[in-house]
Request: fold
Amino acid sequence: MPYEKSRFPSGSDQLPSYEIRIRGKLDGRWSSWFNNLTITLTHTSNQSPITILIGSMADQAALRGILCKLWDLNLKLISVRLIEVDDEEGR
Amino acid sequence: MAQRHFLTTKIQIPPLPPKTVQRTRLLESLDRGLQPNIRLTLLSAPAGYGKTTLLSAWIQERGFPAAWLSLDEGDNDPVRFMSYLLAAIESGIPTADLPSYLGEQLSEDEIQQQILIPLINQMGQSPRQTTLVLDDYHWIRSQTVHDRMSYLLDHLPPQAHLLIATRADPPLPITRLRGRGQLNELRMEDLRFQVQEAEAFLSTFSDLALTSDDVQSLTHRTEGWISGLQMAAASLQGHQDQTAFIRDFSGSHHYIMDYLLDEVLRRQPPHIQTFLLNTSILPRLCGSLCNAVMEEVGEATEPSQRILKNLERANLFIVPLDEQREWYRYHRLFADLLLARLRLKHPEYITALHRRASEWCEDHGLMDEAVQHAILTHDPVFAADLVERAAQETFMRSETMTFLRWVQRLPEEEIRRRPKLGVYRAWSLLLHGAPLSTIEDQLQKSPEETYPPGISLTLQAFIALSRGQMEHGLELTKQALKSLPEDEIYLRDFATFCAAATQIAMGDAEGGVQLLEQTSQTSQRSGNRAATVMILCELGEMRLRQLQVKEAEKLFRQALNIATDQGGKLLPIAGGPLIGLGDVALERYDLASAERLLQEGIQQAERWSLISTLNGHLSMAMLHFVRGDAQALQDSLETLHDLAQRFDASEFDDWIVELFEAGIKVRYGDLEPVRAWVAHRDLEGAPERIPSLYQQDQVVARLYKYELPILARLHIAEGRCEQALKVLMELLSLAERANRPFLQIEAEILKARAFHTMDDSTSSLAALHRALQMAAPVDAVRVFLTEGEEVIQLLQAARSVWDSPELIDFTDRLLGKAGLPISMAPPTTQDLLEPLSPRELEVLHLLPTGLTAEELADELIISVNTARSHLKSIYAKLGVHSRHEAVARATELDLL
Reply:
């Protein structure tokens, strides 16, 4: 029913984080466009640039939305990876 | 009348831009799709590879008729998708004689039988080839739509060709088609510009003097992506050192569009840059709207309409939306980039821009767009002000679902500060089945002293009345009407409506009707469509209860007219009259029309008020019962219980559903639950002992007379006929007092059954005679036909006894109707190569009446064109050329 109001659980700390890599250089100013994902740059072994978007997603639909935006901007996707909490804590 | 409002731009072949690049190799690739073994041509590539332009050019170049449908998000609604698909084919392929579809909810089986198969047959019979293009198929996520397309794909005749353009591969059986060599595929690799094409493109779109090396590096850097090249060309315009630009661009690893947008913007004079950035918040642009949005941002050095035209001329990613060049939109990619830039450069502007856009849209009556912009200002006060201002108008158009959608995007604190908004929200929640506790909770949260007088009283009155607290509710409506300001038109009319309906419920029919008739006139004058339609429906239902079927029909039709806006679109409140007309059709035992009307009525009513669908579902359940469709009946009963349970403001609806179910069960001979119901309702021993409940409450006592026939049926089934007759005597006197002729007829029919069981055939005949005498003049057929086989036998046996020709005629009509197929199976007796569709049969049955096409259309509630196309199809299938011949041939075939 439309009167249910809760949308996302608040407190982004429990939300899953993803790392998305795309080919080419994307400016940090695109961050707000991609739901405030953090944008960093790196490059492959043969020096072609790679952009990395990292951040938490409310759910799979949010991830899908980001991927669609990349697709619509004709950006080339390299990889998508779920960042396990354990990864970050370095266990 | 009930035709949907079509966006014709969706089914037009998009006009080609004045200049395009000739892509011969791709046109030839598309031609391959015309080979008879190819079932599907798939164009799959991201945005900006020229898919739409290529298809449009191909159709124009080859010059054959083609149907085109540009899909969007809304087409995930299978009903809408089907309507547009048929409209596209109808307009694209002029000779097509298509199955008609009025947007009714059909099962997938029926969609196949009634629409897809006739459509496929039609294409198969056509001597010419049929080309159907579906553009932007990536919007479709609905599995139902995919399934229908797969079905179509599997059964396409060789002369029909399907082309799908999409940004992502669709979940259709692509791999299978590819494996069998039935797929013609054009993918990104094929669609990207080759160097020669890029060269042609750049020289067509710009007066740039580029060396072939330049072109080669541009093509290489953009990888033949057309949007990228277009952007590059725009950046190069007026650039001093083109070769240097191309060198820098080629060496840059920046995202192409990002890099180029900077260049494009830098090329523009400052006022155009400002214009582009600031108008990027608009999904659609026109001169006047841009002027309003740009106000204060930049001095108006140039009128916006001219800027828009110049942008179009300069190929700056702007698309005209109409022939008059009034409305435009930016290329989506371009708008996205501009908006990202605006957010970065001037985030502080965005609120003000949306605010002005919202104000302009409100002034121009584009309320939904106004609210969208208002919400994007992130200024809750501004947005709430707008929604509050729009509340009354929106309710008068019965668009309560839209209102709920708006108000739910406002922050709770803001709604709480605005009692009026709170009441309207509570109201729409109530209409859509929210629990009463939620609603009372919300009402209490608003500070009482700030209530505008009378506003919450109206809602409280409605709740009290729903709960059956009639005196209290009536008192509240009177207080509300005393204190409501004059300009609260919607609430005033609604309060009056409640008062009148209550008066009627309490037995003062005359006073109530008078009040309703008065109010319907004032509400119509003040444009309160919702109230007018509600009143006309209430009056119509009263007429129906009194078996004045024609008068009821007239009122419902009048109401349906008022519930249709200028564009021919149905307002949600149209659900009421459609369900009413469905009841009229059911009363006449015209089951096909009844089903169609009820389905559409329920669908509309859901947008206005969930609880208002209850009547529609009751009638639908009755329809399933008379057709003997046990599964559908069971589903309907579940829906009814669910609805009644959800609407917890009143128990009345629960009782009505229980009553209805008991009536069905007793007819099926499933007596145990009926006995339980009798005990539960304290009906044991009636009529000598009046149930305790009814001694206290005269309104609830209204139900009593509807319960008695069920009690009588139970007694007859148990062989307690003496007791049944006592019940029926009581029923007769109650029905007469309340002016419910159909209950009187029902009582006489049941008496005939009881006497028959007692072997008293004289009394049985006499009762049947009285029933027929009352029923014949008003043509009340349903009440006989829902009584079961025994009554049909009684009618057959009694036919020879009657002396009046009217009674014999009427009895024959009843027996004729009783012979109608009671199952859902379509008639199979037709001796035709291609059987008539159920809809065509309906039209056929009206042919002997000599109605004109207009009258036929009116009778079946379809458009005149649809009626004509049915006639055409009937003639074709019967192999005749006139109505006279059609009737003769149909009679020969036993179709009439």
Notes: Residues 15-83 of chain A form a domain with the Alpha-Beta Plaits fold (CATH 3.30.70.2040).
